[in-house]
Write a structure and sequence with these properties.
By secondary structure, the protein is of the alpha+beta class. Among the domains are: 135-212, Phosphorylase Kinase, domain 1, CATH 3.30.200.20; 216-444, Transferase(Phosphotransferase), domain 1 (Orthogonal Bundle). The chain has eleven helices and twelve strands. The chain has helices at 177-187, 218-222, 231-250, 303-306, 315-330, 340-351, 381-385, 391-400, 411-415, 418-421, 440-462; strands at 135-144, 147-154, 160-166, 197-203, 206-212, 216-217, 253-254, 263-265, 271-273, 280-281, 289-290, 311-312. The strands form four sheets. The protein has a five-stranded antiparallel sheet. A three-stranded antiparallel sheet has the order 6-8-9. A hairpin with a 2-residue loop joins strand 1 (135-144) and strand 2. The radius of gyration is 50 Å and the shape is globular. The N and C termini lie far apart (158 Å). This is [RNA-polymerase]-subunit kinase. Residues 1-133, 421-468 are annotated as: Disordered. It holds the Pfam family Pkinase. Belongs to the protein kinase superfamily. CMGC Ser/Thr protein kinase family. CDC2/CDKX subfamily. InterPro entries: CDK (IPR050108), Kinase-like_dom_sf (IPR011009), Prot_kinase_dom (IPR000719), Protein_kinase_ATP_BS (IPR017441), Ser/Thr_kinase_AS (IPR008271).
Length: 468
């Protein structure tokens, strides 16, 4: 009879002639640990139905040779020890702690801390210092719906500039489109009679456009009691205005907001066109395109826009320039209307009522029938301004203010008018502008103070002394 196969986990080998020994009885469950023990016993899982084997801190040889069965096989070995009992687990060998417990040290009283005097804060390093401002504001020189304009000085070069802060409070869709259009236009323009954009500055949440500083604007100068322009000065300013306008139109730009406060002057008599918030490019190859008619300040708005036209070209700027020339000579606006209807009435009273004879296709404008005057007015332009202008200047202004936009001259044609080419006197820059900054903002502040002064004087005159 063939010998029986030895079991790997058998404790005693059976004789060849005897049947294979029976497996040992299942190991009884281990006793529950002491509640004061720090580690619980973990039960060893069974392997293929064989008895449970515990791994001891020393190596156990389970080779093919026979060995005697030791007491306690199949369950964790328990040894007497001074410290807590620790049972071995399959994951990590059991470690017997034979060290004596460390006596608890006697707590020593903590001394009362003495109050510490805070040391002064160290000075920040140059890298941690706040960078200086690029510009120091000197004062406010302008304010409007677009924002505010400040006079400022460059902290490094000491150059005087104008900071135009873009108003962002009412914007819900991001950066205002008018400011974007103005920046794009000014980056492409370089002319002595057009204001220069130097740079864009961002300070915290504010965006500033940095321009050349100009000491005055035309609206403020014309209301100043001490500024007087001679005939050569007027010709010099008018020519600069038309030269700047001619440059804009040659570059395909419509200004669409020419007025006194947007025409800047410095103390040397240099004139520059400014404020391109309503300006836009137009196609020079096409005579007219469809645009909005809600442009140009009312007093300088041409009649075709007042009648609802949306297809126009450079002639709208030419009309505004004619209004400015009248204002230069007379020191007051030519058409100070209160609304669109009143503005048209002032135009008709001075230049005559338009009709298809002097303005072809005027009856086809959208609002012509709505505001058609009931009375035909003749032109009174020559009688009104003949005593205040030279003949050539009167003729040029009358051409610039022609009712029919098709009959108005361009800026280039106006520069070739006899007023500039042949009529005396020759143009000359004004020399009496160095009387301090004077813009429309300062002019309004001055008028407000004068009104308050007159109001106080009237109140004092009404107070009668009490008789004793």
């Amino acid at each position: 009879m063939a010998p029986a196969t030895r079991s790997r986990f058998a404790s005693i080998a059976a004789p060849a002639s005897s049947p294979p020994p029976a497996l040992p009885a299942p190991t009884p469950p281990a006793p529950l640990p002491d509640p004061h023990q720090q580690q619980q016993q973990q039960q060893q899982p069974a392997h293929n139905g064989n008895p449970k084997i515990s791994f001891k801190p020393f190596a156990i040889s389970v080779g093919a040779g026979n060995r005697k069965k030791r007491p306690g096989d199949g369950m964790p070995e328990e040894r007497p020890q001074k410290g807590p009992r620790i049972y071995s687990t399959p994951a990590a060998p059991a470690i017997i702690d034979t060290s004596t417990p460390t006596p608890t040290p006697t707590p020593t009283p903590t001394p009362t801390p003495t109050p510490r005097v805070p040391s002064p804060a160290p000075h920040p390093s140059p890298a941690e210092k706040k960078p200086p401002m690029a510009y120091d504001r000197i004062g406010l020189v302008g304010e409007g719906t677009y924002g505010k304009v400040y006079k400022a000085q460059n902290t490094r070069s000491k150059e005087i500039v104008a900071l135009k802060r873009i108003r962002m409070e009412a914007e819900r869709d991001g950066f205002p489109i008018t400011a974007l259009r103005e920046i794009k236009l000014l980056q492409s323009l370089r002319h002595p009679n057009v204001v220069s954009l130097l740079e864009i500055m961002v300070e915290k949440s504010n965006v500033y456009m940095v321009f050349d500083y100009m000491d005055h604007d035309l609206a403020g100068v014309l209301t100043h009691p001490e500024f007087k322009f001679t005939a050569p000065n007027l010709k010099h300013l008018s020519r600069q205005m038309l030269e700047g306008l001619d440059y804009l139109h040659s570059r395909g730009v419509l200004h669409r907001d020419i007025k006194g406060s947007n025409i800047l002057l410095n103390n040397q008599g240099v004139l520059k066109l400014a404020d391109f918030g309503l300006a836009r490019f137009y196609n020079t190859k096409r005579s007219k395109l469809d645009y909005t008619n809600r442009v140009i300040t009312l007093w300088y708005r041409p009649p075709e826009l007042l009648l609802g036209a949306t297809m126009y070209g450079p002639s709208i700027d030419v009309w505004s320039t004619g209004c400015i020339m009248i204002e230069l000579f007379t020191r007051k606006p030519a058409f100070p209307g209160q609304d669109e209807v009143h503005q048209l009435e002032l135009v008709y009273e001075l230049l005559g009522t338009p009709n298809p004879r002097n303005w072809p296709f005027v009856d086809q404008l959208p609002w012509y029938e709505l505001v058609k005057p009931k009375i035909e007015h003749p032109s009174r332009f020559t009688d009104t301004f003949a005593s205040q202008m030279t003949p050539a200047a009167l003729d040029l202004c009358q051409q610039l203010l022609t009712l029919d936009p098709e009959q108005r001259p361009s800026a280039a044609q106006a520069l070739n008018h006899p007023y500039f080419t042949s009529e005396e006197p020759a143009p000359a820059a004004p020399t009496n502008l160095g009387l301090g900054d004077w813009h429309e903002y300062e002019s309004k502040q001055h008028k407000r103070k004068e009104r308050e002064k007159e109001k106080r004087a009237r109140k004092e005159s009404q107070i009668k002394p009490v008789s004793s």
